[in-house]
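USER:
I would value a second opinion on how I read folds in token form. Give me a protein, with the fold worked out from its sequence. Write it directly below this note and I will take it from there.

ASSISTANT:
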Amino acid sequence: MDHEAANRQLLWALEQCRSFGLPREDYLSISALAHYNERVVAFENLCVQLFEHDLVLPREIVEVIAELGESMEVARSYWASLSSAAVDSAWTPLPIDVATSVERELAREVSSGHVLDGHVVRVIARRGDDGDDVAVRLDDGRLCVVHLTWKRDSSPEWPRCEFVAMLDPRE
């Protein structure tokens, strides 16, 4: 891949990562590096920031990042950990604006005594097209699948919440 194509691919990946929650200041500094022909440094910084911010990306974006890293001959260690944060098939990562909206709905549904009560949560993905099941990362690092009810319930049993080690791509 020539330098110009690599730069276009890097900027595309950067833009995609921004829509999935890469902070603005990181986006701007990495973008500046890319525009000043510091592609390798920009790429390495992008990978580090994705890891640091624990961002979940669609598998397609992670594959583009891996292909880009290989073409620029960057050490695989920069992007290898990103594949474990990618989401497959049945799960769709949510852009930051959609995730924020779903987080507001989840906060509305969680009542006192619910297992999520008192936790800061980040919605990271949705299962299927109906939008009722969402993957949530808690402030203590745990991952859970929440079945939204789209109504306020005083029972601490709702919304249903199942803690998982990872998202099952077949569900």
Q: What stands out?
A: Residues 91-164 form one domain. Residues 13 and 61 are 7 Å apart (CA to CA). The first helix runs from residue 3 to 19. The mean pLDDT is 84.
